Prior knowledge:
This is Extracellular solute-binding protein (Family 5). Keywords: Signal. Residues 86-269 form the Solute-binding protein family domain. GO terms for molecular function: peptide transmembrane transporter activity. The protein has helices at residues 7-21, 62-71, 119-130, 148-151, 215-220, and strands at 42-47, 76-77, 86-87, 90-95, 100-105, 175-179, 182-186, 228-234, 238-243, 257-262, 266-269, 281-284. The protein is of the alpha+beta class and 287 residues long. The model is unreliable at 1-11, 13-36 and 267-287 (pLDDT under 50). The longest helix is centred in the N-terminal third of the chain and has 15 residues, at 7-21. The strands form 4 sheets. A 4-stranded mixed β-sheet has the order 1-10-9-8. Strands 4-5-7-6 form a 4-stranded antiparallel β-sheet, with helices on one face. Strands 2-3 form a two-stranded antiparallel ribbon. The two termini are 20 Å apart. A hairpin with a 2-residue loop joins strand 6 (175-179) and strand 7 (182-186). Helix content is 16%, strand content 21%.
Amino acid sequence: MSVSKRAGVxxxxxxxxxxxxxxxxxxxxxxxxxxxxxxxxAITIDGTQPEVGLVPANTTETGGGQIIDFMWTGLxxxxxxxxxxxxxxxxxxxxxDSKVYTIKLKPDTKFHDGTVVKAxxxxxxxNWAAYSPNGAQNGSFFSDIAGFADxxxxxxxxxxxxxxxxxxxxxxxxxxxxxDTTFEVTLNAPFSIFPTKLGYSAYMPLPDVFFTQTPEEFxxxxxxxxxxxFVSWQDNVELKLTRFDDYTLDDKVKIKDVTVKMYQxxxxxxxxxxxxxxxxxxxxxxx
Length: 287
């Protein structure tokens, strides 16, 4: 599972605080126009090469998950203090019986290509992920939803000669678009904590353009709806992001540019905060 939603942006926020309070009055190559200029500053953070292209429902490891959490915002997000999930793109998530949920979106949130995030962008993304021929690694996360068994079939002998039977449907009966900002989710059975799952990367929306490309093409130049957007990706070297100025939710970042350096080894610092001054980096490798 990738890092919890907004763990990444919390890290960015911490970094911004360092830029603002760190070495004021002097220029720093890591902060653009100077340490106090957070609006145009830049930071570099540690990362690892994503194993696959950056498609939320197909990303299960930390290297890619870190980027997904920077680039996408889900229906809910998880506070850093461990409290209950809070609405993010969702304006309301309501239910009378814990089986049928009505999800209302905040109006006019946008993807990085400028298109508006609509209810269909969640429904289409969830159906794509659950449809087993697409091979999304997070497809099983939709098993709570009515109709999942009709879109998701299993290989009867794993990697053997037999193939998984063709699903009966390409869409789940439990998903219904009501209007541009509202959709309905019907579960197989009552599940009162279903909304708490909806900040995980599997449940992120996908823009319309995703469905005009292959997942591989999209994943190398991804378009999310989060506080930072994609700029460039040099395999095994670095991935560049920049602030999405049309982002309207509360966790908008103040720093402008973010570079994720891709190391062969995971890195750890001597302090619990990853962005405090005076730390020394030490590598920790798993083999």
